[in-house]
């Protein structure tokens, strides 16, 4: 394990990763909370069907935002590997793999959203259409949480890498590790104790804070000069 001597190329990669991370935060939260969230009430299938059919553009825009998020996530996974592979090659590769698995699972779960949409527009007259659409929407939610299991592992690994990197404060690594524990716990509750999930939701605020802080840190990265460079590379 060694600290990283920053070059102009690595600084550019770090900032680009930060930019894509910002896109992920905006599109992810926007799709889930701002666009799709107001349309979905898992307690009422008929209300969901009515809301989605009344705002088809909003529902499709949420899918598009999720797709942009997934593409950006793949980019972040690769860029962070390129930045941190000299710090810890094995850990950096592992982090990239786990994040890419998460990306694939979340992107694949978008098919469930499309299936829900197709059910509603192709079988609008069928009495069971809203219930079937609800099942697909629930499948998407579970697929998303399955992806977050792998992202939780990625966050734990990235927390360790950042902690040891020598050029990013250890607090950011600790924050990522906490976020990883929240993701793993939240997804575990979704699958094995769903009745406890609502009470755990506020904990996800920690993940938003940790990831937003790390994103801003990546965006503000600069190449050390003078004695700072000597300290980082020593």
Structure description:
With 234 residues, the protein is mainly α. The protein has one domain. It has 9 helices and no strands. Helix 6 packs antiparallel against helix 8. The longest helix has 37 residues. The two termini are 13 Å apart. The C terminus is likely disordered.
- The poorly predicted ranges are 226-234
Biggest sheet descriptor: none
Strand/helix succession = HHHHHHHHH
Helix content: over 70%
If helices are DSSP runs of H or I spanning 4 or more residues, what is the number of helices?
9
Transmembrane segments: 16-35, 67-84, 96-121, 141-163, 175-193, 199-219
Protein name: DUF4386 domain-containing protein
Keywords: Membrane, Transmembrane, Transmembrane helix
What are the main properties of this structure?
234 residues, mainly alpha, 9 helices, elongated, disordered C terminus
Question: Topology, pairings included?
Answer:
Layout: H1 8-36, H2 45-54, H3 56-84, H4 89-122, H5 129-165, H6 170-192, H7 197-200, H8 204-219, H9 227-233
Helix pairs in contact: 1-3, 1-8, 2-5, 3-4, 4-5, 5-6, 6-8
Protein name: DUF4386 domain-containing protein
Keywords: Membrane, Transmembrane, Transmembrane helix
InterPro entries: DUF4386
Question: What's this entry about, in short?
Answer:
The protein is mainly α. It is built from nine helices and no strands. The chain is elongated and about 65 Å long.
